[in-house]
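I'm stuck. Protein, please.
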Amino acid sequence: MKAEYINPFIASVNNIFPQLGFEKISKKNVSIKKNNVERSGILMMLGIVGDIEGNIAYYLNFDDAKKIAGQMMMQEDLDELNSMAKSALSELSNMLTANASINLSQNDIDVDITAPSTLFGESFILDMNTNSFISIEMNVDDMVIDINIAIK
């Protein structure tokens, strides 16, 4: 997968999270993963269509999801991911992907994004639209957000 497809998503994390009050942001790891990855936590998935097509899935474990949603909602401690917290995380995935699509357009790659689908639970399987996908682990104030990118 071309770096010109991946870098806009890294840049979107570096751009959006500071606007939400997060300070320490770094790229932790980049790897290629196969489908059928088992996860527990929350996953926000969006589609991209246009000059390139595929899926973007943002993954957070439950504790990190509560911390990020709490920060977005200006609440210190969330005991659970209630409907408002899930909505905040869904909006975060919209913000990140919209910003990445703006970054892509600066490279003459035009895309539209779909509305996010949010999944949460214990032990679900991540199955993207390709046999393998790029997984980028970003560290945000000592929390990890996985950006999973599958572009055809």
Q: What stands out?
A: Residues 3-151 form a domain with the Chemotaxis protein chec fold (CATH 3.40.1550.10). The chain has three helices and seven strands.
